[in-house]
């Protein structure tokens, strides 16, 4: 089934000084679980707001669920669910009152309502908290309630803006399990996140940086874009080690993760012994050097670095 | 507009109000506090003014004069002083607000048929009070003078030919400030509380981020506006009844005109204050900003609308400005109906002004509100 439910053509949003979203071209099919990744300020929220028809683009256009986001805003609103980044339910209302309110607003029919609310409470694991005021829920529970409210009218497409930001790891996993469940039911999901590892759970992911898409593909393909093989090591003098390794032959890129160094090399088996040797000659103690598979995080950092290096190169030419 | 969606929104607004009992209490107690404060404190009625006496004569005649002042409820004789300079010190220090000075020889002068002079010193720092005291001191003195004429000459003062002016104060014969102020307080509550709470409740949605969630629903701006103002229409209306009841039963303010007309025009005025509230909400980003902005619009309304100071006494250029202050018309209506008992045949101009202001402000506010959502 090839049905594009989200499509953008050179979608652009300019604010006074900055171009938040720059000529975005996306095409998302029904039933996808699409991840929009990028650091803070990349333009993720602005993109989602334009797709939800809250904000009009400065240039270009977007179609969501078959309607233009400017002309068909009201039609789109009936068919989508949107979960903003910040908690946006009524803290002084109870869990149940929040759900009933959104059911009323979307005019969910009386017959369906009770069953649907019960089901949503169940899958969000909020049934026993339904009389509690939303403000008194934990962060993770608030997110789940927000999701439940977003789902009350059975939308075709759900937009989630950083749904797991500020949520503990356990709740994060639980939340993604719920999203996967929705994906199984055929709902199209558009999720923005700053967590690169979450891209692994998407059918396709786009990396957004400074308003434009650097790469958009299936996670496995994105990881395949990274050149070379990856070595992970934990040296005791991180900065010095990093500098020394960077100068060695066959080393493509070095990234720092806490007290770990990730080294991309052209051939791991060939380059590992000289790295080990050079470091021990310099008096740096290395613990556990091993070869690993690149994750999304390494892939994205590498791709962003290349983009930045490319831009600098252009500046040089000018 | 969709009725069931609007009803759902209204229900939510009432839930918010009920969940916040403290604010709810403020909404009902504030008018009472305001009325009590203004009813008692903002009064230029003079009673029991602290007065000192310098009796330089110390005769039966001088004591009779002092007694005449004491007998009027205006003055409380709290001190007898030994010199005029001591009286001056008391007034300087604020211990007394006025002083009666009876010179030596007062009684003697009376017995020989002369016209003795007494002095009445008034602290004029508050001109409003000073004017009233001035009139009171003169009338007490004149009445006493008449009694002396009657007694010494044995004739009824009414038999002496001359013009007699009988002033009649209409509408508020006892000239009680409360009668004048209470309709004003009603106008202020209708204006201020309504605008403030409407603006705050809308801005709260923006501050909490819930507005963004509402915008992605099929809710129309008009539905949201109606839902936001409905609870405050009820509360403001209840507040008006509260102030009215307190005014009638506690302060004894008479309602001479039609209560129905009063309440009807009050609702008309609510259109203006709700509109101002919505307008403020479209400008302010935080509840604090909304509150400050509401206060900012309240000052000209209160000071130029004729709440404290009569518009007739303002310089003419300032009077022109008062025409754009909607509270001005409402105050004329409230005082007209409550104190004078007049109806629409007299107040139709003010009523028309309210309609024009109400519709214009509502339209402006609704347009801006719609824009602010985008």
Query: Radius of gyration of chain B over alpha carbons?
Result: 28 Å
Return the structural class of chain A: alpha/beta
The dominant shape of chain B is elongated
Number of helices, where a helix is a run of at least 4 consecutive DSSP H or I residues of chain B: 14
- Oligomeric grouping of the chains: heterodimer
Number of strands of chain A: 15
Major sheet description of chain A: 6 strands, mixed
Structure summarized in a few sentences:
Chain A has about 325 residues and is of the alpha/beta class. In chain A, about 35% of the residues lie in helices and about 25% in strands.
Helix and strand arrangement:
The complex is a heterodimer of chains A (318) and B (374).
Chain A (H helix, E strand, L loop, with lengths): L3 E11 L4 E6 L2 E3 L3 E5 L6 H8 L7 E6 L2 E2 L4 H7 E4 L11 H11 L4 H14 L15 H12 L6 E5 L7 H16 L3 E6 L10 E6 L2 E6 L1 H6 L4 E7 L2 H9 L4 E7 L2 E6 L2 H14 L4 E7 L3 H22 L1
Parallel strand pairs in A: 4-9, 4-10, 7-8, 8-9
Antiparallel strand pairs in A: 1-2, 1-3, 1-5, 5-6, 10-11, 12-14, 12-15, 13-14
Helix pairs in contact in A: 3-5
Chain B lengths: L2 H16 L2 H20 L8 E7 L4 H12 L3 E7 L2 H9 L5 E5 L3 H6 L7 E4 L4 H27 L23 H32 L1 H6 L5 H29 L9 H25 L3 H18 L11 H7 L3 H15 L3 H30 L1
Parallel strand pairs in B: 1-2, 1-3
Antiparallel strand pairs in B: 3-4
Helix pairs in contact in B: 1-9, 2-7, 2-9, 7-9, 7-10, 7-11, 7-13, 9-10, 10-13, 10-14, 13-14
Give a structural overview.
The complex is a heterodimer of chains A (318) and B (374). Chain A has 318 residues and is an alpha/beta fold. Chain A has helices at residues 44-51, 73-79, 95-105, 110-123, 139-150, 169-184, 219-224, 238-246, 268-281, 296-317; strands at residues 4-14, 19-24, 27-29, 33-37, 59-64, 67-68, 80-83, 157-161, 188-193, 204-209, 212-217, 229-235, 251-257, 260-265, 286-292. In chain A, 37% of the residues lie in helices and 27% in strands. The longest helix of chain A has 22 residues, at 296-317. In chain A, strands 7-8-9-4-10-11 form a six-stranded mixed β-sheet, sandwiched between helices. In chain A, strands 1, 2, 3, 5 and 6 form a five-stranded antiparallel β-sheet that branches. A four-stranded antiparallel β-sheet of chain A has the order 13-14-12-15, sandwiched between helices. In chain A, strand 5 (59-64) and strand 6 form a beta hairpin. With 374 residues, chain B is α/β, with parallel strands linked by helices. Chain B has helices spanning 3-18, 21-40, 60-71, 84-92, 106-111, 127-153, 177-208, 210-215, 221-249, 259-283, 287-304, 316-322, 326-340, 344-373; strands at 49-55, 75-81, 98-102, 119-122. In chain B, strand 1, helix 3 (60-71) and strand 2 form a beta-alpha-beta unit. The longest helix of chain B has 32 residues, at 177-208. Chain B starts with a helix and ends with a helix. The mean pLDDT of chain B is 87. The interface between A and B is medium-sized, with 28 and 24 residues.
């Amino acid at each position: 089934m090839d049905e594009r439910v989200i499509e953008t053509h050179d979608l652009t949003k300019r604010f006074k000084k900055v171009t938040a979203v720059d000529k975005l071209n996306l095409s998302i099919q029904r039933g996808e679980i699409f991840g929009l990744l990028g650091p803070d300020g990349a333009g993720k929220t602005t993109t989602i707001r334009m797709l939800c028809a809250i904000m009009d683009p400065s240039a270009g256009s977007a179609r969501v669920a078959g309607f233009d986001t400017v002309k068909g805003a009201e039609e789109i609103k009936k068919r989508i669910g949107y979960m903003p980044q910040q908690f946006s339910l009524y803290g002084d209302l109870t869990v149940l009152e929040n759900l009933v309110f959104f059911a009323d607003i979307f005019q969910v029919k009386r017959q369906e309502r009770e069953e649907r609310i019960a089901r949503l409470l169940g899958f969000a694991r909020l049934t026993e908290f339904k009389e509690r005021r939303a403000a008194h829920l934990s962060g993770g529970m608030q997110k789940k309630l927000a999701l439940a409210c977003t789902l009350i009218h059975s939308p075709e497409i759900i937009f989630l803006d950083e749904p797991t930001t500020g949520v503990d790891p356990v709740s994060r996993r639980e939340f993604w399990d719920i999203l996967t469940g929705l994906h199984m039911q055929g709902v199209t999901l558009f999720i923005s996140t700053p967590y690169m590892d979450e891209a692994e759970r998407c059918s396709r992911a786009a990396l957004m940086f400074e308003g434009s898409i650097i790469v958009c593909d299936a996670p496995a393909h994105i990881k395949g874009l990274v050149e070379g093989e990856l070595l992970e090591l934990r040296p005791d003098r991180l900065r010095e080690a990093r500098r020394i390794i960077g100068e060695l032959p066959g080393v493509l890129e070095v990234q720092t993760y806490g007290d770990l160094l990730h080294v991309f090399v052209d051939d791991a088996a060939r380059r590992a012994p000289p790295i080990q040797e050079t470091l021990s000659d310099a008096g740096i103690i290395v613990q556990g050097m091993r070869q690993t598979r690149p994750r999304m995080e390494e892939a994205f950092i590498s791709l962003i670095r290349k983009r930045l290096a490319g831009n600098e190169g252009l500046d040089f030419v000018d | 507009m969709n009725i069931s969606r609007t009803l759902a929104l209204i229900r939510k607004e009432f839930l918010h109000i009920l969940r916040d009992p403290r604010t709810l209490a403020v909404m009902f107690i504030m008018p009472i506090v305001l009325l009590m404060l203004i009813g008692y404190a903002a009064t230029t009625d003079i009673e029991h003014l602290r007065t000192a006496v310098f009796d330089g004569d110390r005769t039966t005649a001088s004591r009779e004069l002092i007694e005449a002042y004491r007998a009027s409820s205006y003055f409380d004789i709290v001190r007898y002083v030994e010199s005029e300079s001591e009286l001056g010190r008391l007034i300087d220090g604020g211990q007394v607000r006025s002083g009666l000075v009876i010179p030596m020889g007062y009684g003697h002068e009376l017995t020989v048929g002369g016209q003795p002079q007494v002095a009445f010193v008034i602290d004029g720092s508050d001109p409003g009070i000073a004017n009233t005291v001035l009139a009171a001191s003169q009338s007490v003195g004149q009445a006493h003078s008449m009694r002396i004429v009657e007694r010494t000459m044995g004739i009824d003062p009414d038999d002496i030919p001359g013009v007699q002016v009988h002033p009649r104060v209409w509408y508020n014969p006892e000239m009680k400030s409360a009668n004048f102020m209470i309709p004003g307080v009603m106008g202020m509550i209708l204006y201020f509380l309504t605008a403030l709470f409407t603006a705050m409740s809308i801005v709260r949605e923006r501050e909490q981020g819930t507005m963004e969630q509402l915008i992605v629903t099929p809710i129309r701006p008009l539905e949201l506006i109606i839902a936001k103002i409905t609870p405050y229409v009820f509360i403001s209306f209840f507040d008006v009844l509260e102030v009215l009841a307190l005014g009638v039963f506690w302060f004894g303010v008479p309602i001479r005109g039609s209560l129905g007309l009063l309440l009807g025009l009050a609702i008309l005025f609510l259109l203006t204050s709700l509109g101002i509230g919505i307008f403020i909400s479209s400008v302010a980003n935080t509840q604090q900003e909304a509150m400050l902005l509401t206060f900012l619009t309240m000052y000209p309304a209160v000071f130029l609308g004729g709440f404290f100071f009569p518009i007739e006494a303002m310089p003419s250029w300032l009077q022109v400005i008062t025409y754009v202050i909607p509270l001005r018309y409402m105050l004329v209506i409230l005082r007209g109906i409550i104190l004078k008992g007049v109806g629409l045949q007299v107040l139709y101009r003010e009523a028309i002004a309210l309609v024009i202001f109400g519709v214009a402000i509502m339209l402006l506010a609704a347009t801006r509100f719609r824009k602010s959502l985008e």
